[in-house]
Amino acid sequence: MGWDRYNTAVSMLEKASDGFDVGDCFEVLRATAQEACPTVVSMVLDGAANTVYWCENQEWGRVSKKTMANLR
To answer: Which structural domain, as residue segments, surrounds residue 31?
Structure first.
C-alpha cells in the first residue's frame, strides 16, 4: 500500500547530506515512482531560487525548469 515507497524515501532523506539539492530530490522521486500507476508530472520547487523543475512521464533525464519573478 505504498509503505515500501515511504520507507525508501525516509531512508534516502535520513542519509542525505547538507548539500541535498534539486538533483537529489529527483532521485527520491525516481526511487519511489510507481510502476503500475506512473506519475504524469514530477515537480521540485527551489524556493530560494524561485525556480520550479519538472519532468513528465518519468523521463528523469529530461528535466525542464521555469524561474519565476521575485514576488517579494
So the answer is: 3-67
